[in-house]
Amino acid sequence: SWAEAWNGAGYAVAGLDARGAGFSQGTRCFAEAFADYTADVASFAAFIHAHGGPGFAGLPIFLVGVSLGGCIAVHAAEGGWVPPPPPVPLGPALARPPPPHPAPYLRGVVLLAPMLALDAISKRGWNRVLVHVGRAISILAPKLKVARTPKNTLHPHLQALWDGDPLCWHEPTRARNGMEYLRAVRELAERTPGMAFPFLAFHGEADTLTDPGG
Predict the structure, then answer these.
(1) Residue 1 needs a FRET pair 20 to 30 A away by CA distance; which of 75, 90, 134, 135 works?
(2) Tens-place pLDDT, residues 79-136
(3) Residues with Cβ within 8 Å of residue 100, at least 6 apart in sequence
(4) What is the model's pLDDT at position 86?
(5) Cα(117)–Cα(115) distance, rounded to whole angstroms?
(6) What is the DSSP string of 17-55?
(7) Alpha helices, DSSP H, located in the chain
């Protein structure tokens, strides 16, 4: 496994399931705001930096994120995500104070097919319509399952592993999450010129889910 390989090379590894994913509690595939994901990762990193024992305590931390996790990692390293003032009331969960500056022990990120752009998938099929009405659906029915993700036809063995894993989400993305994902990548696009943390990124040019252009 990755953890075993990194351990063998002298790196301590810790992982967490995002809220509503894996073994975590909460409604599956749902977060009130993208900032919740970022805050969870930042809190986890702070905990293992301070209390993780000899393998973690006091050592620099590099975040590793795949797909959605890559977007979360960039937000956490960049200092968190501050939602813009919404044009309509979205409830207290989306009206938050700016997050603190990233801790000095967060030294960089490794990104594997990171979700840093969603232009391609947002223009595909029914998603073209959802982009325009998604905000209203997100407010009125935030947990509604609305946006299907394409199958991995390039690597059917990976798709089979995904389909057979009960801890993976096999249904359409919920309305609130879909809109939060779009807003998160658009916010990053505007702030990218000001980012200065080290990163290493890998992305396949034929990716049909997360846009390599990001």
Answers:
(1) 75
(2) 643 333 344 444 544 444 444 566 788 889 999 999 998 876 666 655 555 666 777 7
(3) 79, 80
(4) 45
(5) 6
(6) PPTTSTT--SSTT--S-HHHHHHHHHHHHHHHHHHS-TT
(7) 2-8, 34-51, 68-78, 119-122, 127-140, 156-163, 175-191
